[in-house]
What does this fold into?
Amino acid sequence: MRTKMVAGNWKMNMTLQEGVALATELKDKITNPSCQVVIGTPFIHLATISQLLKGTPIQLAAENCADKEKGAFTGEVSAAMVASTGAQYCILGHSERRAYYNETTDILREKVLLALANGLKPIFCIGEIKEEREANIQNEVVKTQLEESLFNLSEQEFRNITLAYEPVWAIGTGLTATPQQAQEMHAYIRSVIAKKYGQETADDTTILYGGSCNEKNAAELFANPDVDGGLIGGASLVADKFLAIIAAR
Ligand code: PGA
It folds into this structure.
């Protein structure tokens, strides 16, 4: 049985104090969740929140890591540094990183390798932009993203990957993919994985949906057989909304 998961992505929100307050509230209220709960925070929160989450069922993710191992890369944060905080996951390939920071599929391939080499489990985001959906080429787009950044991995390595299908037109826009659109794409992604790594690995791969997933639509999205949970942006910043989404999983 694959892992069901609800993961938060705080993006560039929350001062250290605000983040600690939110993580403390989540820790106090999430005692026996029905799925794996992960919170993805800015780098500066990781060391503190990791201590706070010790002994709880909540796991911690960075939102990025460098594509270089170490050295003279001012301002960058390596996968080894992320791992040293106690974080277990690393969100990679988010569409905002691809679009605003020019992260190519080649760069992302390096990041995935470094994350894995340092014992981090990537939550790898894929998804098409609006024009690609309108041209009905979303399947090809997502397949290429998988092939170019992940399909160099061995089957064993790939089994550490969690995928997040995030149609870019749905992120932060209030436009959610319909449950049917999500299910169709998730089933397609699983079929692509099955072709490359076999049915068992495909069946074991957790595929999250992200893009304006909230406390109102989560249950309907999660009811689909290939939608294993959600990667939650805006709604993960408000404890009660995030808790309601977890309860829907
Ligand atoms: P959103 O963001 O839930 O605010 O749309 C999701 C994401 O970007 O991971």
In short: Strands lie at 5-9, 36-41, 58-62, 89-92, 121-126, 162-165, 207-210, 229-232.
